[in-house]
Amino acid sequence: MTILRMLKYLFLIMVAVALVLMAMANRETVVVEMVPEALAGWFGVQYSVELPLFLVILGGVTVGILVGFVWEWLREHRHRADARTHKRAAQALEREVKTLKGATGHDAKDDILALVDGTGPAR
């Protein structure tokens, strides 16, 4: 087992222990309301649920991470589009080089050797 792998597992174990300790310390139930009580009368909706505090904390962290991933994916769209364009251009140039090499008749030879042998293009 390599040292990096052991460090990775040690880090994951430490994170798991920290999450379990946080969950054990925050087991009290809290009321999570969708709309504040003052506005609930105006909207006619009073939705609330009782959850342990650690679930609220972990849920908030999870939602934050997901929003960050989506935001970053949308932000990098321009870079992915540029990469696709450059990849297509490189493939087109590779095809053109293959056709030009095939037209001269000396695929595997060097240009200078082709000139010396007399099979290369005339000047």
Name the descriptors:
123 residues; mainly alpha; two-stranded antiparallel sheet; 2 strands; 72% helix; elongated
Q: Topology of this structure?
A:
Blueprint: H1 3-25, E1 29-33, H2 37-43, E2 48-52, H3 53-75, H4 77-104, H5 111-117
Summarize the structure in words.
The protein is mostly helical. It has a two-stranded antiparallel ribbon. The protein starts with a helix and ends in a 6-residue tail after the last helix. The chain is 72% helix and 8% strand. The protein has helices spanning 3-25, 37-43, 53-75, 77-104, 111-117; strands at residues 29-33, 48-52.
**Which residue ranges are poorly predicted, with pLDDT under 50 across at least 5 consecutive positions?**
none
Separate helix tally: 5
Written as H for each helix and E for each strand, in order along the chain, the element string is HEHEHHH
What class do helices, strands and sheet pairing give? mainly alpha
Write out the strand line-up for the largest beta sheet, numbering strands in chain order: 1-2
Mean pLDDT: 87
In one word, what is the shape? elongated
Q: If you compute it from the alpha carbons, what radius of gyration comes out, rounded to the nearest whole angstrom?
A: 32 Å
* Beta-strand residue percentage: 5-15%
Tell me the distance between the termini: 63 Å
Helical content class: over 70%
Extended strand count: 2
The largest sheet, given as strand count, sense and whether it forms a barrel, is: 2 strands, antiparallel
